[in-house]
Design goal:
The structure holds 2 protein chains of 2 kinds. Chain A has no helices and 11 strands. In chain A, the strands form 2 sheets. In chain A, strands 2, 4, 5, 9, 10 and 11 form a 6-stranded mixed β-sheet that branches. By secondary structure, chain A is mainly β. Chain A starts with a strand and ends with a strand. Chain A is 0% helix and 58% strand. By secondary structure, chain B is mainly beta. In chain B, strands 2, 4, 5, 6, 9, 10 and 11 form a 7-stranded mixed β-sheet that branches. A 4-stranded antiparallel β-sheet of chain B has the order 1-3-8-7, with no helix packed on it. The chains are: A mainly beta, B mainly beta. The interface between A and B is medium-sized, with 24 and 23 residues.
Chain lengths: 113, 114
């Protein structure tokens, strides 16, 4: 089955700096890559996603890049703010409606004011 | 719309006891999922369903059973609880034809098995 590796497991940045989280996947059939943010004690929520026919996608301060050849994708957060502090999960999925989802182990991001 | 709801929010069981976790969604989603979340291990898929009356095994199905008798409900059962099943359980739902692929999560159930 699919295996998703995520690095780093923890990341501390100063407010205003950029943060980058990287993920690799093993199954070349995976074709949809969402990122979820989970604040402490809360449920995961989708923040951005990318399909395999797109190399990059941006939404304000958040961007995701995908390299299908190397089977890796990354989340970039610019101008970090304290409210960006959370655990971020990458995922890889496939299938009709992308129902087969495999999550990474998560990155705990701490933004220091 | 309530979105995805889970019952109960907290539960403490003794080893060997059984229980059922209930997940309900009001978004007319076709797919529903049960995950467990443990420190340092992310979200691991237990079972999932692609439609009413169907279920399939995920990554860590042993010790759990599920049923989807109605489209809006997905039940997770533990027949004989073990301490290794102490975890936070999240239900999620996704997908309607022509809709997005986003998974919507419930608030979670914190289960402790003594």
């Amino acid at each position: 089955g699919e295996n998703v590796e995520q690095h780093p497991s923890t990341l501390s940045v100063q407010e205003g700096d950029s943060a980058v989280i990287k993920c690799t996947y093993s199954d070349s059939a995976s074709n949809y890559f969402p990122w979820y943010k989970q604040e402490l004690g809360k449920r995961p929520q989708l923040i951005i996603d990318i399909r395999s026919n797109v190399g990059e996608k941006k939404d304000q301060r958040i961007a995701v890049t995908l390299n299908k050849t190397a089977k890796h994708f990354s989340l970039h957060i610019t101008e970090t703010q304290p409210e960006d502090s959370a655990v971020y999960f990458c995922a890889a999925s496939m299938g009709r409606g992308y129902q087969k989802v495999t999550f990474g182990t998560g990155t705990k991001l701490q933004v220091i004011p | 719309n309530a979105g995805v709801t889970q019952t109960p929010k907290f539960r403490v069981l003794k080893t060997g006891q059984s229980m059922t976790l209930l997940c309900a969604q009001d978004m007319n989603h076709e797919y529903m999922y049960w995950y467990r979340q443990d420190p340092g291990m992310g979200l691991r898929l237990i079972h999932y369903s692609v439609g009413e009356g169907t279920t399939a095994k995920g990554e860590v199905p042993d010790g759990y059973n599920v049923s989807r008798l109605k489209k809006q409900n997905f039940l997770l059962g533990l027949e004989s609880a073990a301490p290794s099943q102490t975890s936070v359980y999240f239900c999620a739902s996704s997908w309607t034809s022509g809709g997005s692929n986003e998974q919507f999560f419930g608030p979670g159930t914190r289960l402790t098995v003594l």
